[in-house]
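Quick one, T. Sequence first:
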Amino acid sequence: MKTPRPRRITHIGLLLACLLQVVAANAATYTYVFFNASQTMTTMSSSINAVTIRSGDYLFNYSVDGYWSPVQGGQPTGRFFTITWPTGVQAQAITAGPLLGRGADITLKRADGKKFDLKSFTGKILLNTAGAGAAFEIMPQVNGEDALPDPLQYDCTGYYGASFSYTPSLTNYDTYKIHMWGDFALTALTLMDDNPPLPPPTVAIAASVSPAGMGTVTGAGSYTSGSPCTLTATPNAGCYLVNWTEEANIVSTAASYTFSATANRTLVANFDTIPQVGTGPSVAGDGVTVSWPAGLTGWMLEESADLVNWSPSAEIIVTNGGQDEITIATPDGSRFFRLAHP
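Structure tokens:
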């Protein structure tokens, strides 16, 4: 005789209820409170009108007045920021360039695009609004679309430096766009979600040699953001390291260059050949001429009596046919000469 079907359904129902209880018990809600000195950030992208940084699981995109110039019609320098990480995140209203009049924006989202909650924030206005009135406007979004017909408004009428705190408790959106017609900053922020923390972001450190074949570099690769990175340059025989450059800017002259890997970087180890020093009889036939290529940058002629203690040479250097040279009269005792590079 078959077991009654209703009893089997009851067992399945009890099993499903137990599974749901286990899932509910294992669910976790994570709270992230910004801003404090222990929180690091990585610049993900930067342009003349916007910058995106990442801290933990979250991306902050803020507007920048990069076309602004201190002199009308002059070279754009951009306006300075009064609020910087980790004090907060500042957005600048666009006052010059093609986006003129757009106002100031800060956009918040998770690095993986998942939904989260905006529980509270404190905004600081960086201009005077009293008399004109002002508001922080927040538009939550889902999948790139506005989630509300109109943005939510939170009053911020006041004077430069005034702070306003609110607890909107917006839930289950993947993006929050905060707007004001003038400069403002977020100086406190509480975000919550039930997504597990993401792995720490990584940055790519690339290094190359110039000219090719004069040496090698080690240490390039992928690093966890904020971790130390050491690049080491080793010259081949007859060569020496001149410097490290990044976008043609000199960043170090040390063979081992150590820095914190907070953003993608591309560096070049620049080498050159060690200049050759020659000797021969002086033109007058009395003494010896020591010569080397003229115009060497950073090199210094040094001398020593024991090959241990070296000091800058006081000999008079003359340039002759593309060579720098000194003449040592004889007899002149035992002296040794070398070219030294810092």
